[in-house]
Amino acid sequence: MPELTIAVAKGRLQADALALLARAGAVVSSAALSSRRLALEDESGRYRFIFVKPSDVPVYVEHGIADCGVVGRDVLLESETDLLQPLTLDIARCRIVVAARTGTSLRGLGMLRVATKYPRLAAAHFGAQGRPAEIIELSGSVELAPVLGLADCIVDLVETGATLLENGLEEIEVIGESTARLVVNRASYQLKAAAVATLIAALEVAKAQVSNLD
Ligand code: PRP
User: Fold this and answer.
1) Rounded (5°) CA angle 165-131-162
2) Could you say which of 55, 74, 110, 175 is the most buried, measured as most Cβ atoms within 10 Å of its Cβ?
3) Residue to probe by mutation, ligand 1, list 98, 153, 157, most atoms within 8 Å of CB
4) In angstroms, what is the span from residue 59 Cα to ligand 1's centroid?
5) 94-177 homologous superfamily
6) Kind of pairing between the strands at 4-9 and 47-52
7) Average pLDDT by stretches of 10, the chain with 214 residues
């Protein structure tokens, strides 16, 4: 019976998160990983992993279906869930930015049309600036919106900058930085204190080992 269930965000941070967790003693076999199974146990049998969409990680952890999760700060800023965040992981480093078509100015526009996967974050950002904004929520490929005239700008993640560049967009403003976080359910933190503390300590060691390699 696994001691802890860990929800891992599928996609951009999954490979680095699993590599770090493996260093911390939670090793998923390559055979298991190459399957399409969305829930599996690590080799020690102490951990169960579930692989879910990034925005669903906080939901599974808040409801206690998963005790812990690994997810980007961007997702946590957008989520309204109440989770503990005991550890920042130095993986999936990226920026949350406002971007628009290269050479265009957002000055002088009345109501700004903003396409994004982060509606709360975007609304809070422009709200804090006192800038009227219509938030247009999309699920992905957000860079298309200014190109096709759906929006004046986007709020999105930038990692290498390649997607912006290849779609004729440029960064206008950095809203914040994001890396992956370990999140923990509040009840699990108390009721499974020893197992959670062991995982956090092992991840801290793994994180230090990886940063020494850089
Ligand atoms: C993210 C983000 C950008 C891209 C940025 O999308 O929304 O589109 O990555 O990365 P880059 O700066 O390295 O080019 P993701 O790959 O998560 O897919 P999505 O657009 O379907 O959400």
Assistant:
1) 10
2) 74
3) 157
4) 22
5) Periplasmic binding protein-like II (3.40.190.10)
6) parallel
7) 95 95 93 86 94 97 98 96 96 97 90 97 97 96 97 97 97 97 98 98 94 80
Ligand 1 centroid – CA 137 distance (Å): 15
Would you list the domain boundaries of the chain?
4-92+179-213, 94-177
Domain 4-92+179-213 architecture: 3-Layer(aba) Sandwich (3.40)
Strands 112-116 and 133-137: parallel
Please report the pLDDT score of residue 32 as a whole number.
81
Task: Write the DSSP string, the chain.
Answer: --SEEEEEE-STTHHHHHHHHHHTT-PPPHHHHHS--SEEE-TTSSEEEEEE-GGGHHHHHHTTSSSEEEEEHHHHHH-----EEEEE-S-S-EEEEEEEETT---TT-SSEEEEES-HHHHHHHHHHTT--EEEEE-SS-TTHHHHHTS-SEEEEEESSSHHHHHTTEEEEEEEEEE-EEEEE-HHHHHHTHHHHHHHHHHHHHHHHHHHHH-
Atom of ligand 1 nearest to the CA of 11: 17
Q: What are φ and ψ of residue 12, in 5° steps?
A: -60, -30
Residue 93 token pair: 């480093």
